[in-house]
Structure formats: structure tokens, C-alpha cells
Amino acid sequence: MRYFCLLFLLLMARTGFAQTKSELPFIEHLINKGHYNEVIHLIDKDSLSQEHGPRDSLNYFKGWAHYSLKNLEQSTTSFLKVGKDSPFYLKSRFFAGYNQIFLENYTEATKIISQLDIQDEPNLSLVNFQLSGINMLQGNWLKAKEQLLEVNPNNATLHQQAAALEQICREQETHRSKSPLLAGLMSGIIPGSGKIYAGKTGEGIASMIATTGFGLIAWENHRKLGIASVKTIFFGGLFAASYFSGIYGSVISVKIIENEYKDAKHNQILFQLHIPLRNFFE
Amino acid sequence: MPNTIKFFFSFIFLCGIFLNSAATGSKGDRLYASGQYFEASIEYERMIFEAENQTDLYYYKYKKALCYKKLRDFGRALNELQPLYFTNANDSLFQRVCYEQSLCFYLNGEPSKALWKIDEYFHRSADSTTHKVFMPVRLLCLNETFQWEEAKKCFRRFVQMQSFSAEKEAEMQLMVDNLYKKRNLPRIRSIKKAENWSRFIPGSGQIYAGKTGEGIVNFLLNASILAFSAQQAFNGFYITGYLAGLGFFNKTYQGGIKRSGILASQKNKEIIVNFNSGINALIRSDFELN
Asked: How far apart are CA B124 and CA B61, in angstroms?
């Protein structure tokens, strides 16, 4: 009878716990192979999500799968469910913060990272580094520089990226914005020159050729047929449209160039914030 | 407890363990059979993860590729099948893998790669009786790449491989010969020729590609712009004639050349799809594939 009971217990133990035990390495294998949709599908199945023991790990893997698929909101939700006792806790929190930075929810990102309450190096430097980046993205350059000074300069993982953020700060200080008014005026005097000033040389030359062409046609018709001729009015109208749209285009070009500059800086900061996260935790 | 009972319980215990581990494999098959291909692909991936020997690994990779094929994700199916290398060309799995690879290449719009895969199999496999299953895919690929002579030979050989009566076989061979006679073959438009036609007579390339209305409109548009340009120059409006006339004409003329090439390419695709769907229907109704 004892032998029977022992066998029965062993069989039950195997069927009851085998799935939970074997599922985590398999999920990790799927993550490594880049099968993120499969990971989410597996974890979302009721039987798995209700398991108590590996819940933190499952939330981490689900967060990671969503992060890899660029579903950043869902990724944050899963990352934030990872408990403090999990070995994935810090990584999950930092990546949840980064997701929010990417989604431009800076207040939420600051909250997630600040809540970590880290007092020791090297994680403290990473917190300051991330917070400095958030301030840069919000345009608080002074505060960002102060926070960047709190990053340990001897930290090899952060050193290069901190230097890069400092460089971005310096470039921001020396950056001189182009004037839309000046671009418009320049295009008014020499068609296309405003666009060249804005940095769009090709567009400027094309605009210059088109406006000059329409101008020449209008001038020829005016000289031979007079101002009242339909042809003169038609080509004159085309010339005027080309001329004024060139001025308007130059003003817009300056604004576009400025936005492109801001976007480039924004992406540079995001890139620099991302690198140490990967290096710290992988 | 008597020994017999002990052995009985031990047997039950071992059976339980065996059934538990075998369940995952059959679970994949069950899911596949019930049309849950995504779920089945996960189960096969689990078997790949747990596979202890290369034979099992290759088999589950093949099954996983079938799931992706059913999901119409031919790229992923090919990714699963590409790394499989068989030293023994007579392995039945080698044939199935090569077949699925060639079919996925064809369905993925890469007929040349499908032909290369089939040729590789024919070259390595000594057993020519296994070639039969590849014939329809090979035939469709040869048609898509306009290799009519080779396609005809392939079709004739496929007819020979069938277990038709002598009378039926002769009838089928005659039908194949007729199908591939020059007058019955689809008229493939040369992209180069279409562009050249439009280069010499604007709009004629579109007519050659089968779009007569568009060709006439294009011709009239180019002719009127050119006439306007000439009329302006004749009346002494040289700048207007040159810039407004020729400048505009240059755009419509160059655009017309490009457009005729695109139309010819689209027409070719349409013709081949129609031609191949006829052959496909014929093979499905009258031929045995295995």
C-alpha cells in the first residue's frame, strides 16, 4: 500500500508541476529566437498566468516580448507588475521608465524611476543619468546638466553616454535658430535663396529655375501682347503663384529644418539613454 | 504486497510518464488538424526545444514550417526549412522538405529559387519515382519564367508518370503539344519593347501593353503639347514655346515611357496567372500527384 501511495504521489507531482517548471526555459528560448507573439500567446493562456511562483518572471518575459514588438504601453504594464523580490525587478523598472520616455510620458517616467529609491552605485548613477535625459527631453537643460554631474565619472558603462549627453547640452547652448522672416525676405529678393539659406539647396535651386522660367514667359507675353492679354494674365498668374509660394515655402522650410533639428536631438538623447540600459542588464 | 501488484503499479507509473511526454507532440498534431496553426507552431517549437536528436529536430522543424505555410507566412516557413541539411538524399523527409521549400518559394513569388531547389533535389535523389510530386510546381515555375520549351518537356514527362491508359496518355500528350504551340502560348509583352514604342511614338507602348484607351489619350496629350510649343515658336514666342511647351512635353513624354514599361510588366503577370490557373485546374481534375 505504501508503495502504491508513493507511486501515486510521484505521478501527481510530475503532472502537476511539470508544466510550470518546463515553461520558463521554453519561454526564454522563444524570446531568444525572437518569437515574441508566441511568448505573449503562451503567457496570456489562463493556466500560466494564474501560476503563483513564476508570475514575476512571466510578467518580465511578457513585458520584454511587448517591448521587442514596440507595444510600449503593454510592455510598461507588464514590467510594472514584476515584484521587488524578482531578479528582474530593476531591469523591468528601468525599461518601463524608458518605455514611458519613448512615449513622451515624462512625468510617469520620472515617477517610475524615482520610485526605485536606489542609494548605491552603480544603479544610482544610472538613475541620475536617466533623469538627466528626461530633463533634456523636457527642455530643462540646466537641471539636466546638474543631474549629469551626479553621474559617477568612473562608471565605465555610463562614461561614454554621459559624455555624449554633455555634448548634446553644449550643442544646444551654441545652437542658433534660423529666422523664418529672413528666409522669406531672401526669397522675396532672389527666388529660392530663402530655401538655400534654410539648408534645402536642391529645393532652392529648383524653385529658382521654375520661378525664373515662369517670369520669362510672362515677360515675353507682356512685351508682345500687352498686359490685357489672356496669355499674359495666365502666365503672369503662374509666375505670381510660383513667386509667392516660394516665399511661403522658405518660411515653412526654416520651421521644418528647426523641427528636424529638434527631432534629431530628441532621437540622439533617446539613443544615448537606451545604450547603458542594455549594457547594464545584459 | 505481492510482486505482481508491484510490477503492475510500476507499469502504470511508467506509462503515465511516457504518455505525458508524448502528449506534447500529439498536441501539435491535434492543433494542426483542427486548423489552429499558430498554436500548433508553438507546440512544434516546444518539440524542437526538447528534441534530443537531429532526426526529431528536423521533423518538427518541417511540421512547424507547414504551420507557417498554412498561415501564408512563406518567409518564416522558408526560414525554418533553409538550415536543414540532409546527408542521405534518400531520406523521405529530405523529399518532403525540398518539396515544401520549392512550393513556398513559388508561393512567395520566387519561381527561380523554386526551380533551383527542385533541380537540386533531382540532382541528389537517385530515385526518379519521387520526382513526380515536384512536377506541378516545376511546371508552374517554368511557365512563370517563360521557359516554354522546358515547361512542355516537364508537362509531357508528368503525363508519362501518370497511370493513364495508352489512349488517354496519347490524348493528354496531344493536349500538351497543343497548349505549348506558339499560337496558343500567352503573348508576353517585352518591357523594353513597350518602352521603345513609347519612345518613338508616345502612347504606342501603352497600346502594345494592352491599354489602348490610355495609349490614345497619352498620344493626344503629347501631340497637343508639342503642337502648342511649335505654334508658340512659329509666332515668335520662343521662351513660352521652349519653357511652357517643351518643358511640359518632356515630363509627359518621359512619364509615358516609364508608364508603358509598368503596364507591360503588369500585363505579363496577369497573363501568366490566367495561363497557370488553367493548367492548375487541369492537373487537379485529371492528374494524380502522389
From this structure: 21
Q: Which residues of B touch A39 (CB under 8 A)?
A: none
Q: How many residues does chain A have?
A: 282
Interchain CB distance below 8 Å, A26 and B46: yes
Instruction: Give ipTM to 2 decimals.
Output: 0.70
Tens digit of each residue's pLDDT (9 = 90 or more) over B142-163: 999 999 999 999 999 999 988 8
A2: nearest CA in chain B? B1
Cell of A5: 501511495
Question: Distance between CA atoms of B172 and B176, rounded to whole angstroms?
Answer: 6
A14:B38 CB<8 A:
no
Closest CA to A63 of A86, A96, A37: A96
What angle do helix axes A156-174 and A123-138 make, rounded to 10 degrees?
A: 20
Q: Where are the alpha helices (DSSP H) in B71-211?
A: 74-81, 92-107, 111-124, 135-144, 148-161, 166-179, 191-200, 204-208
Nearest CA to B144 out of B53, B271, B41, B241 is that of B271
Give the residue numbers in A contacting B (CB under 8 Å), as ranges: 1, 3-4, 7, 10-11, 14-15, 18, 25-26, 29-30, 33, 35, 38, 41-42, 213-214, 216-217, 219-221, 224, 231, 235
Q: For residues A219 and A227, what is the distance between their CA atoms, to the nearest angstrom?
A: 10
Q: In angstroms, what separates the C-alpha of A245 from chain B's closest C-alpha?
A: 19
**Where do the H-state alpha helices sit in B34-73?**
37-50, 54-70
Q: Which residue of B has its CA nearest to A225?
A: B237
Neighbours of A179 (CB within 10 A): 14
Measure the CA–CA gap between B16 and B136, rounded to whole angstroms.
Answer: 46
What are the tens digits of pLDDT across the range A179-205?
999 999 999 999 999 999 988 899 999
**What is residue B240's DSSP assignment?**
I
Closest Cβ opposite residue B20 in set A14, A29, A42: A14
CB contact under 8 A, A221 and B20: no
pTM score, whole prediction: 0.75
| Cα distances (Å, whole numbers) of residue B26 to A30, A43, B31, B60, B159 | 20, 21, 8, 11, 38
